[in-house]
Amino acid sequence: MAQLDTRSKLAILADAAKYDASCASSGTAKRNSVGGKGVGSTEGSGICHSYAPDGRCISLLKILLTNSCIFDCHYCINRKSSNVRRARFTVDEVVRLTLSFYKRNYIEGLFLSSGIIGSSDYTMEAMVRVAKTLRLDHDFRGYIHLKTIPDAAPELLDQAAMYADRLSINVELPTVEGLGKLAPDKDAGRIRLAMGGLKTGIAENKEARRKFRSAPKFAPAGQSTQMIVGADAADDSAVVASASSLYGKFGLRRVYYSAFSPIPDASAVLPLVQPPLMREHRLYQADWLMRFYGFNVGEVQDATDAGMLPLDIDPKTAWALKHRASFPVDVNKAPREMLLRVPGLGVKSVNAILRARRQRRLELADIGRLTRGIEKLRPFLIAADWRPVALAERADLRPRLVKAERSQLELFG
């Protein structure tokens, strides 16, 4: 490998890291350096921008330790057979970059991934040393997210969890069959075994911290994973089923979805074009229905057409159109779980409605003031002065809702 300076390595390895989507920094413990102690924090305003559930924009230095790899996954631009320029950071270089970028207020933390060099253990040990050096030698209190290697020794994964806020172990593809076809060097069983071990460690640590305040933290922001969408034949129904299973079995904080992007010198087994980015967006919406709106996986699958989520309307609206008998919903009487199923009503809007209706009966104009828009809601709700008698039964309701959704997304309507 040719000798490169740090700037050249950064250009190569930051670009190589852009395909990993699982780098949000929500859910960790709060730490800061107020009072002159330590360096960095996990909160506050700011070269990767991620967003926490509360809407905060979080800047992370997102890089690979190296883009060299002994694996030959078909979908990966850094695979062994790929003709790309290679680079490798030393542990000290990553530490210096992180501290330098933080002190310049460019970043709030580090997201570190890597290709596999030498062996899984050798690579994982180097990544652990980065986090350990930052925490112990420099008292770095900012956010650290490590993308771990499931084939590495369990004790290395445990060490990573002692120094990182969040670990991600990527399942890569929605189905075991897809992984076997496109990533023959990876073992779905080993991936899930590592995720299960991490779940157990997090649970045991929570119990220990309840009993002993001095117990060290263990991956306080939990674990996440990522699935590539559109590289194999899995439809959206299979994707949401896989995500639901992962949430249930491993207690994940997030499942990230990354639309497959064609790469140079691609394998013949890959599709020639990428899926619509809207498909990725709809999967995230479906994911939120399961996490925050009380939908089970079967109900989300029921919103699909031949296994695929519609691209012209969101999954909640698609479900509502298939279950018109459940609507309209009376906003002055309906329980919270039913209000959450009304297209156009989010969690904050529903909470606001529940508070407001304790004071008086709500009219349609009141709902409009508590939400972002009323057009999408009209066919699905009853208010003190509104009942959608004819509108709810219209045969052309879906086209009208598509138009309403599009107009909602305009910046200057």
UniProtKB/TrEMBL annotation:
SUPFAM superfamilies from the UniProt entry: Radical SAM enzymes, RuvA domain 2-like
Any one GO molecular-function label of the UniProt entry: catalytic activity
Keywords tagged on the record: Iron, Iron-sulfur, Metal-binding, S-adenosyl-L-methionine
Cofactor (UniProt): [4Fe-4S] cluster
Record InterPro entries: Aldolase_TIM (IPR013785), DNA_rSAM_put (IPR023874), Endo/Exo/Phosphatase_dom_1 (IPR051675), rSAM (IPR007197), rSAM_sf (IPR058240), RuvA_2-like (IPR010994)
Keyword Metal-binding tagged: yes
Pfam families hit by this protein: Radical_SAM (PF04055)
Radical SAM core domain mapped to chain residues: 64-177
PANTHER family linked to this entry: ENDONUCLEASE/EXONUCLEASE/PHOSPHATASE FAMILY DOMAIN-CONTAINING PROTEIN 1, TYPE II SECRETION SYSTEM PROTEIN K
Protein name, as recorded: Putative DNA modification/repair radical SAM protein
Protein species of origin: Glacieibacterium frigidum
Taxonomic classification: Bacteria, Pseudomonadati, Pseudomonadota, Alphaproteobacteria, Sphingomonadales
